[in-house]
């Protein structure tokens, strides 16, 4: 019975983060949506990212260059990274519309990248992902150093 109580407590604490991964002081990065009579926070970037992934996967099968290939996979995440830099590393709030649009571009690149990697076996996609991950890791380090100073 104690395990059930602990599980319920954990789920209750996690519920505010179900559709957003932002802490309460960062909820300005979210849309406020009414769902079944409750107001919930929906991450602005993720609200563009997930539909973008679906469109990227569909484009992989239906579209050709310039909409498919390594160039969009490499370039389309850049606007989201730039927006994240401006709004996270610097003291700027940014715009949820911009977050959603850049999230959609990022998601499109993710969808293309996943299909290109797993269906075409093109390992260059991993190199692109590692490059972006390295940039993000450095910037997270800068942000953490700034907040702890």
The level of helicity is 55-70%
Tell me the fraction of residues in β-strands, as a range: 5-15%
* H/E topology pattern: HEEHHHHH
Report on the biggest sheet: 2 strands, antiparallel
Structural class: mainly alpha
Total helical elements: 6
Question: How many beta-strand elements?
Answer: 2
> What is the typical, i.e. mean, pLDDT?
89
Shape: globular
Distance between the termini: 45 Å
- Radius of gyration, whole Å: 18 Å
Low-confidence stretches: none
Strand order of the largest sheet: 1-2
What does this structure look like?
With 149 residues, the chain is mainly alpha-helical. The chain has six helices and two strands. The protein has helices at residues 2-14, 44-62, 70-75, 78-89, 96-120, 124-148; strands at 30-35, 38-43. It is globular, with a radius of gyration of 18 Å. The mean pLDDT is 89.
Short description:
This protein has 149 residues and is mainly α. It is built from six helices and two strands.
How is the secondary structure organized here?
Elements: H1 2-14, E1 30-35, E2 38-43, H2 44-62, H3 70-75, H4 78-89, H5 96-120, H6 124-148
Antiparallel strand pairs: 1-2
Helix pairs in contact: 2-5, 4-5, 4-6
What keywords describe this structure?
149 residues, mainly alpha, 67% helix, two-stranded antiparallel sheet
